[in-house]
Design a protein that fits this description.
By secondary structure, this protein is mainly alpha-helical. It has one domain: Rhomboid-like (Rhomboid-like fold, Up-down Bundle), CATH 1.20.1540. Helices cover 65% and strands 0% of the residues. Helix 4 packs across helix 5, helix 5 crosses helix 6 and helix 6 runs antiparallel to helix 7. It is globular, with a radius of gyration of 18 Å. The chain starts with a helix and ends in a 5-residue tail after the last helix.
Length: 219
């Protein structure tokens, strides 16, 4: 391949990464703004979801789109496995998730865009089902379960592959986002640590699966 061809290939890869990550972020932001200003009529940009949790027994209408989150051990709450990663309590919650989602998601894409989708799906399903089975009462929402899946994948990819580049990536992520590991423990009230934990485990499972396949392609 010529140098111009190499540049075009890199440009196309970056463009694909931007479209995918940007598209997912726009969906989450669009849903949150619609929920905040249309369904919930404005209110605080940094609050409001706690009242929804408090009034849960009285119905879900006051929760807006967040009623589609994961409700543990409630059959209708299973739909949250699909929808919860796109829903957030408020703008502060969404802002806090956007940066690590883009950063860690992009690091996964550096090798294969398909890896990003595999890790995302496995983390969302394992994290969602684990939360539904073992989560505390209430509505569990947010992309943090998937983000912790990305973290688990990137940290354990080096362990499973035992390749210099993979190990270097794992160490880099440990330095950059290692403090997130505290989110796996039930220290902070109102945080879905169950979603974090099971999402992280989903990422570890993904690392094992993709490492087994990568040996044949030298990735």
């Amino acid at each position: 391949m010529t140098r111009d061809g190499d540049k075009q290939s890199v440009f196309n890869e970056i463009k694909t990464q931007i479209v995918i990550l940007g598209g997912l972020v726009l969906v989450a932001w669009g849903l949150e703004l619609f929920d905040l200003f249309v369904l919930r009529g404005g209110g605080s940009l940094y609050g409001g979801f706690n009242q929804c949790q408090t009034d849960l027994r009285g119905g879900l209408a006051q929760c807006g789109l967040n009623q589609f989150g994961i409700i543990p051990r409630n059959l209708i709450g299973l739909r949250g496995v699909l929808f919860a990663p796109f829903l957030h309590a408020n703008l502060a919650h969404l802002i806090g998730n956007t940066i690590p989602f883009v950063t860690l998601g992009w690091l996964i894409m550096l090798r294969e865009v398909s890896d990003f989708f595999i890790v995302s799906v496995i983390s969302a399903v394992v994290g969602g089902l684990g939360t539904w089975l073992f989560g505390s009462p209430g509505i569990h929402i947010g992309a943090s379960g998937v983000i912790f899946g990305y973290l688990g994948y990137l940290l354990f990819r080096g362990y499973f592959e035992r390749k210099p580049l993979s190990i270097a990536m794992s160490l880099f992520v440990l330095v950059l986002y290692g403090s997130l590991i505290w989110g796996l423990l039930p220290f902070q009230y109102g945080i879905s640590w169950e979603g974090h934990l099971f999402g992280f485990l989903g990422g570890v499972v993904s690392a094992k699966m993709l490492a087994r396949d990568s040996k044949s392609i030298g990735g």
